[in-house]
């Protein structure tokens, strides 16, 4: 990538950065709300350029996701084959909640001020056509660790495997080049977590804490670690990856500590099966023990159309 141009629009695989803002909005019933939103998201690349030009080395990027409930009204495009609202997953002890959200703006940069400025200009343009459902500011923590102290994102695909894992292709030509997005905002009980020994924490995550070495999977029918439960294979034994760009968030003063999960995938069923395995368990009842310390406050699904489809929304 040339240092003289910003990151390409709608790059779901934009580089990991030091700062991020996860902005979830809902459509209002204001006059011309649909028209305003359509025009704004169609020209979001221009807004991104206006902000990113101030520091091309800051890796500024914004990815726009559109929810199932407003897809038809806002885009007028064929629906992506798997797009539907986030389904609640209720296990014996923990629940993956389903929460509202029509639009997601995943804003990333090495500089917090650029994320702030983009969000400010964006909301000015959208005006009363939207209301804010959730705004979470994330930060990179040490050597890409979460607030539980473990390295996060090790299982992400790399190199040529990235587009294969995250971009819809020939299986749904109308949505080709786009990606499904699932978000969940988790808060951690750090006091309880810190009450565990390092070995207990490692058994729950499935990796060593200091050097991030993967532990062996347990036999079928035994309590599996988070790493094992989050590994998804199809009926032919082929493993399917997703791209995570999770970020820690929180405030020691308010006692809030969390991880914002965001997963991009070519196939929505991969993330949904992952959540089934985590919350219900394999076998049922043996849920992901990480959930005893991490509680999801939100759960929403979006689809990020390709840059060309997004830019064409205001062509009429």
From TrEMBL:
Residues 144-307 form the Dyp-type peroxidase C-terminal domain. PROSITE patterns: DYP_PEROXIDASE. GO terms for cellular component: cytosol. The keyword Metal-binding applies. It holds the Pfam family Dyp_perox_N. GO terms for molecular function: heme binding; metal ion binding; peroxidase activity. Residues 13-140 form the Dyp-type peroxidase N-terminal domain. Keywords: Iron, Metal-binding, Oxidoreductase, Peroxidase. InterPro entries: Dimeric_a/b-barrel, Dyp_perox_C, Dyp_perox_N, Dyp_peroxidase. Coiled coil: none annotated. Its cofactor is heme b. The keyword Heme does not apply. Belongs to the DyP-type peroxidase family. NCBIfam families: Dyp_perox_fam. This is Dyp-type peroxidase.
């Amino acid at each position: 990538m040339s240092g003289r141009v910003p990151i390409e629009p709608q790059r779901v695989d934009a580089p990991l950065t030091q700062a991020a803002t996860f902005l979830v909005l809902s459509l209002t019933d204001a006059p011309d709300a649909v028209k305003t939103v359509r025009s704004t998201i169609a020209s979001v690349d221009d807004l991104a350029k206006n902000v990113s030009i101030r520091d091309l080395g800051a890796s500024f990027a914004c990815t726009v996701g559109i929810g199932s409930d407003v897809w038809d009204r806002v885009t007028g495009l064929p629906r992506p084959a798997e797009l539907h609202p986030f389904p609640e997953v209720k296990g014996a002890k923990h629940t993956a909640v389903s929460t509202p959200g029509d639009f997601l703006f995943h804003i990333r940069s090495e500089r917090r001020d650029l994320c702030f400025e983009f969000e400010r200009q964006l909301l000015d343009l959208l005006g009363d056509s939207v209301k804010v459902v959730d705004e979470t500011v994330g930060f990179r923590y040490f050597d890409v660790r979460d607030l539980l102290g473990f390295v996060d994102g090790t299982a992400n695909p790399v190199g040529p495997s990235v587009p294969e894992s995250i971009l819809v292709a020939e299986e749904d030509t109308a949505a080709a080049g786009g990606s499904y997005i699932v978000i969940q905002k988790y808060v951690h009980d750090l006091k309880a977590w810190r009450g565990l020994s390092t070995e207990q924490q490692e058994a729950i995550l499935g990796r060593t804490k200091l050097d991030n070495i993967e532990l062996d999977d347990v036999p079928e029918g035994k309590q599996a670690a988070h790493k094992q439960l989050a590994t998804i294979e199809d009926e032919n034994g082929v493993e399917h990856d997703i791209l995570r760009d999770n970020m820690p968030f929180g405030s020691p003063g308010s006692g809030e500590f969390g991880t914002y999960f965001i997963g991009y995938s070519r196939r929505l069923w991969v993330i949904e099966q992952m959540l089934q395995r985590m919350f219900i368990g394999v076998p049922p009842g043996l849920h992901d023990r990480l959930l005893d310390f991490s509680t999801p406050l939100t759960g929403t699904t979006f689809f990020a159309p390709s840059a060309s489809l997004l830019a064409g929304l205001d062509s009429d």
